[in-house]
Amino acid sequence: MSRPHPHRRLRLVTGGALAALLVVAGCTSNTPETDSSSGGTDSKAVSANDDPGKKVVIGFSGPAADHGWLAAINSSALAEAKKYDDVELKAAEGTNDASLQISQIETFINDKVDAIVLLPTDGAALTDVATKAMEAGIPVINVDREFSSPFAARTTVLGDNYGMGVSAGTYACKVVKDKGLDDAVIAEIAGIDSLPLTQDRSKGFKDALKACGQNVDNRVAAEFTVESGEKAASNLLQAAPKIDVIWNHDDDQGVGVKAAFDNADRHEFAFIGGAGSANAMRWIKDGSMAATVIYPPTQAADGIRLARLIAQNKGLSDLVQVEVPKRIVLNAPVVTKDNVDDYMALGFES
């Protein structure tokens, strides 16, 4: 799955700022960045930062790779570290056990690594040990699931769940406009409704639709699994004989969602996905999916790069600031047939 996590946080946008965000999303969401995304290719930024520097030891701890998105998180981090001769990576075994992950960080502290990249199985549960590492002089790069204290991380790298919803909603508005639909029926297949990340995605979608005078007419929730996606999508199709646009939050879940569409022979709508799986990329290329919204599987790879720079006392070469920023929220671009080849390398297998 993509993977959705309960401790992702959104950037809060209110009032006029939301309108500005929607305009920007509409202008930029379909435009790939010209710089290669970390973990996607062998390319690295063209700057002196890539020249070999002081040898650094980085500890990496992530969750168990029990679905596509998390597997991509872990593999991209390992691949990124291998690109640098001045990086020695100590990678702990992936786990969904907070107690075991705490033990892994304790080991990194005892080993006196130069930096730690940590995607916590539970941000709150790992806050104390991350703070301990920081107090020991070891910078912690927090990935995807935030800690509950600002003192637990030197830098935090996040995807943008609210932004995913905004991008999906903005694209849905474009579909409605391009097709000249007067009374569009828009549906949503969410993930687990109790999770903040799902709530953030749905809010962004709703807010973007509202900006163009649309709303969600039919909504169901699944559980980020293939089976639940198929069941939820089947129920949705039975309840809605007419649909113009469907946004499914998660491309791993989308395997089941698309199976339901195929079984019912329902393809009259624009199908929008979420996360950016390899399946979604292939569906876009063959025309069976209109678009997907990226939730970057390269966050830990970005964490590795940032850990290296921080441990070597470097900043980001494209910024005037001499230090790595405290917080980085990655973009949630829309991938369509026009730009799918640019993002294909980032597609993860479900």
UniProtKB/TrEMBL annotation:
Subcellular location per the Swiss-Prot or TrEMBL entry: Cell envelope
Residue stretches of biased makeup (Polar residues): 30-46
Positions of the Periplasmic binding protein domain: 58-314
Family annotation (InterPro entries): SBP_2_dom
Pfam family, one: Peripla_BP_4
Keyword Coiled coil: no
GO CC entries: cell envelope
UniProt keyword Lipoprotein, yes or no: no
Stretches for region Disordered: 30-49
Keywords assigned by UniProt, alphabetized: Signal
Signal peptide region: 1-19
Family membership: Belongs to the bacterial solute-binding protein 2 family.
PANTHER family named among the record's database cross-references: D-ALLOSE-BINDING PERIPLASMIC PROTEIN-RELATED
Name of the molecule in the record: Substrate-binding domain-containing protein
Organism: Nocardioides panacis
Lineage, top ranks: Bacteria, Bacillati, Actinomycetota, Actinomycetes, Propionibacteriales
